[in-house]
Amino acid sequence: MDGTIPGEKWFPRPRHPQPAPPHRRRPLVVVPGSAVRRLGARLLDPVTATVIGGERTQLEATIYRGDRLLVRGLPGSHQFASLAELLPRTWVVREEERHPWQAVAEEFGLVEDLAAVAVTEVVLEVAPGIAASTPDAWEVLQQHRQALGGDLERAVPRQVGLSHLLISSGHGDGIGHGDGIGHGDGIGHGDGIGHGDGIGHGDGIGGAVARFPVQWGARYEAATHRHRKARPVVALLDTGLGAHPWFPQDDSPDSLAVREVTLGGKRIGRLVTPDDDPEATGITLDPVNGFLDPLAGHGTFIAGIVRQHCPGAQILSVPVMWGDGVADEKDVIDALTGLYLRHLIGERTGQPELCIDVISLSFGYHHETPSTFEDESGLFTILQALSAAGVVVVCGAGNDASTTEFYPAALARTPAPGAPLVSVGATNPGSRRVTAFSNTGDWVRAYRPGVAVVSTMPTTFNGSLQGQVRSANPELPERGSMDADDFSGGFGVWSGTSFAAPALAGDIAAQLLGQDTSRWQDRVGAARTAVDSALGQS
């Protein structure tokens, strides 16, 4: 077995030794209880995990789907057969019949391009009519690697990997309402800041501001660049985009905020229903008490930051994350793959309105073996493909107050051959000092404000919390203290590296404003120049 698949031809994976930093705090890894129930999330504990002999010291805690594996390539690959052979008769394995974007790729002659980046989801199940324990994806993966020789450091790219869960880098106190399973130092865990307070705070490490409403006092200047070739396009993979005057419900191709991003008539991103849309009422996890989700409004807040930094940019909102701040890696990869194919179609058919200039990602995860992340067959490959196509990817560095790699942001350590991938940490207001919760390290390339940031919130949000003081004297105007979850005014304050990422994405987009980057050669060069200019403003 040579470790390659049909269509794989592009991206060498250089090995980079990554010695442990001299000062290290292991991050707290928490599985929100809502994700356990919804996605079958499991925590990989390095102390008790099944390992191939002698490799335990290389493991870090991570969160993954217990019944899923990701296999490189389109459905029907030889890797699927090798997995099926490993399973006992009490378990069965099934894979997707067709890749979500296979029909589009066939229509536009992009099958080879899709095969080079595609990932197929494999589901592990108990065989019908048999009483047996639920399969564990990590154990099956270890068996598969043992059958291939077992060496974590082998040069052959891995074709089978875990289906990780990515946590918002607005992640912090209150995610999952404290009902999850954690692994790490325990600093700040379970400190009782309830139901969303301190989101983006970073595990109790001080210096951040809870999410709460504010009033916008300045006049908002509408965008002046609406010509397709003159405006940069910024895609936001997050919770979606709620109702706000800055982002009218305009589905025309010229809209400056697109909520339904499609390819071949199919929506790119997670299918959202009214009951699980964290950008509608903001209440999806606790309808009994009416508390806002910990990450409700996260996508709208990020969109507002991009708009402040580059009013002329077109924003593509791609929902991949739930209100608890958790995204399924397969959903993220499929969304990025859809954007990639859309971009290629735009270039090859002369439709610049389909192309993308910048992607902002405010989430990530800690890989179980950071030294071998570049061998993973899923997220790394599609990000490399986007880079080669001239698309800048900006990633939040995470809020663990740690130097431990947070992916995909840590990929910024390895220079990309095409457009750069940039990782962003957070600074405090009024200074260039890095905030206490922000991750740092040689893999963090830039910093932007990430504490007490002001931006847009859905005007439909008004949770069950009430002001502490209220007076209804009929002879006087109604009086009261601030309602901490009433965002009907449309603006709020929040903290996290989640919000540093779109700030830099907007700065990069502003550098591209008015440029024609329709040709590939121009696109890569313009992307590199724009990133250098934006970083030079730091």
Describe it for me?
Helix content is 21%, strand content 19%. Strand 11 (262-263) and strand 12 (266-267) form a beta hairpin. Residues 1-19, 152-156 and 170-206 have low confidence and may be disordered. Helix 7 runs parallel beside helix 8. The protein contains ten helices and 23 strands. The strands form six sheets. Strands 2, 3, 4, 5, 6, 14 and 16 form a seven-stranded antiparallel sheet that branches. The chain has helices at 33-39, 78-86, 102-107, 111-117, 137-147, 298-309, 329-348, 379-388, 497-512, 520-536, and strands spanning 29-31, 41-44, 62-72, 91-95, 119-126, 160-168, 181-183, 212-213, 233-238, 257-258, 262-263, 266-267, 314-319, 326-328, 358-361, 363-364, 392-396, 421-427, 446-449, 453-456, 470-471, 479-480, 491-494. The chain is globular, with a radius of gyration of 23 Å. The chain has one domain (1-169, 202-464, 482-538): Rossmann fold, CATH 3.40.50. The chain is of the alpha/beta class and 538 residues long.
